[in-house]
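Bumping my old thread because nobody answered last time. Still need a sequence for this structure:
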């Protein structure tokens, strides 16, 4: 990676004050996204992936959220930008595809009108120009007979077609950053593969930077250039796709990989889900937030994992937050079932 990153996030904290205390949804997160590259953010539900990206888009309610740190898009500080400026940037310079297209599209308006309205809002185009642009976008995302289907309502589209329509709407103003939040989770495997191919083709065509949020490392393997693994609101590992998937450094990443089916793996060996549940962000565990679920705390010794938060050491974009030395890690990770051993 080289040059000034297109998106730069530094020491981001996103906290939600509640009657029961403060939910520390994101706690000191830093990452970059280069132009034309795809960053995959992976983690279980509640790890802070979506909260992070809603902060980038400026979609958290200011009265109910405490946000600190720095988010810069093409050099512009988004945390100090006005609501009006953020609205201008959303849909124009950055946009988002959500998981549930049916919930995200209005059932009362045609697909063409919804795509066209986004275009009109940001460009001032006429209704006729907006309709032409909607047909063009439906063509680009592979909707058959786009000049007819542009007048359909969302319920007349299949799940895969609705997701394509969402992508068309997200890309209608040629955004430079696209955030895709679990965009294929609700789709069957074949349609999922088609949508991934479509995103990759569109990225090649337009040079858009993509943040792809998922809980599924298999999806990451298909699309990401760089990978950031989140746990309990923090980054626990980052690196290139090959580094993270082939030589994981963090026990949590190892656990995610162990719970993922592979085509070339032995069929008679059961998958190994990570024991336990993700931490409460209202009252997260001290030290390493993964320690109640980690099998390697004794290897570190001295109760250090429960008391001392491991720093994220990053060199040339590669690093992890774990107290294991490289020698200890090599020993522990040689046992592929390591993360499933009871403490
Ligand atoms: Fe496991 Fe300790 Fe490393 Fe955390 S710091 S991942 S608890 S070994």
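Sorry it took so long. Here it is:
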């Amino acid at each position: 990676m080289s040059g000034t990153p297109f998106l730069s996030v530094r020491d981001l904290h996103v906290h939600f004050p509640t009657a029961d205390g403060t939910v520390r949804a994101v706690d000191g997160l830093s990452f970059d996204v280069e132009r034309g590259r795809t960053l995959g953010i992976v983690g279980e539900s509640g790890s802070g992936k979506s909260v992070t990206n809603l902060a980038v888009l400026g979609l958290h309610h200011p009265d109910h959220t405490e946000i600190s740190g720095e988010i810069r898009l093409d050099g512009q500080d988004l945390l100090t930008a006005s609501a009006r400026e953020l609205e201008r940037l959303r849909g124009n310079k950055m946009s988002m595809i959500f998981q549930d297209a049916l919930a995200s599209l209005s059932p009362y308006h045609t697909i063409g009108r919804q795509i066209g309205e986004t275009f009109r809002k940001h460009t001032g185009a006429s209704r006729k120009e907006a309709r032409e642009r909607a047909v063009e976008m439906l063509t680009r995302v592979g909707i058959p007979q786009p000049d007819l289907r542009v007048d359909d309502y969302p319920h007349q589209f299949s799940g895969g077609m609705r997701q394509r329509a969402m992508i068309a709407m997200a890309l209608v103003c040629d955004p430079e950053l696209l955030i895709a939040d679990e965009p294929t989770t609700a789709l069957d495997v074949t349609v999922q593969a088609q949508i991934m191919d479509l995103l990759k083709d569109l990225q090649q065509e337009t040079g858009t930077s993509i943040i792809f949020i998922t809980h599924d490392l298999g999806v990451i393997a298909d699309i990401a250039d760089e990978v950031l693994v989140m746990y309990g609101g923090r980054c626990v590992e980052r690196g290139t796709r090959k580094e993270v998937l082939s030589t994981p450094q963090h026990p949590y990443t190892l656990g995610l990989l162990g719970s993922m089916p592979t085509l070339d793996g032995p069929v008679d060996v059961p998958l190994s889900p990570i024991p336990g549940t993700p931490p409460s962000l209202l009252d997260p565990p001290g030290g390493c937030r993964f320690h109640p679920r980690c099998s390697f705390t004794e290897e570190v010794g001295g109760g250090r994992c429960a008391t001392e938060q491991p720093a994220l050491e990053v060199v040339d974009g590669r690093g992890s937050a774990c107290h294991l030395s490289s020698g200890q890690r090599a020993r522990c990770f040689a046992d592929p079932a390591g993360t499933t051993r009871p403490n």
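Residues 248-332 form one domain. Let me know if any region looks off to you.
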